[in-house]
Amino acid sequence: MSETETLLVQQLQSESQKNAAFKTLITLYKERLYWHIRHIVKSHDDADDVLQNTFIKVFKNINKFKGDSQLYSWLYRIATNEALTHLKRNAKLKNITNEDAQDLAINNLQSDVYFEGEDIQIKLQKAIATLPEKQQLVFNMKYFQDLKYSELSEILDTSEGALKASYHLASKKIEAYLKAH
């Protein structure tokens, strides 16, 4: 952990400094976490809800953070889990499969006033949706957020070699999908 992260964690775990430090944490990570979540859940409104849940969970559990990983890795892991839980909960509420829920979210992108993508962006999102969950996560985090494999390894608790293989497979599947559609 960097010196700055270590200091921030100490402040977050201090009752007298927690609120001010939490505002700093939100300022530092809000945008990156929002886009990470948005790539998973697709919808702006859902991403906002999941982001809020993520920060609530962080606030409640910051004293459990031991510093074994980077702070941002811990945040990304929480955000990822919250986003996946959100998707599964939505699918269950609508009594549809996770894949159908994802298709529905992608189809709703075109009517989302916050989505500024072209047709190719919709096609890319549809291609990503055909991937298994783990490949989707790896592809989104590597392609859209340009995270290093070492960072992905910490966040997803998977070896760098496995992540490289997942990203390579995901890229090939997406390329094949785009050529076919």
TrEMBL record:
InterPro entries: RNA_pol_sigma-70-like, RNA_pol_sigma-70_dom, RNA_pol_sigma70_ECF_CS, RNA_pol_sigma70_r2, RNA_pol_sigma70_r4_t2, RNA_pol_sigma_r2, RNA_pol_sigma_r3/r4-like, WH-like_DNA-bd_sf. Residues 25-91 form the RNA polymerase sigma-70 region domain. Residues 123-174 form the RNA polymerase sigma factor 70 region 4 type domain. Keywords: DNA-binding, Sigma factor, Transcription, Transcription regulation. Belongs to the sigma-70 factor family. ECF subfamily. This is RNA polymerase sigma factor.
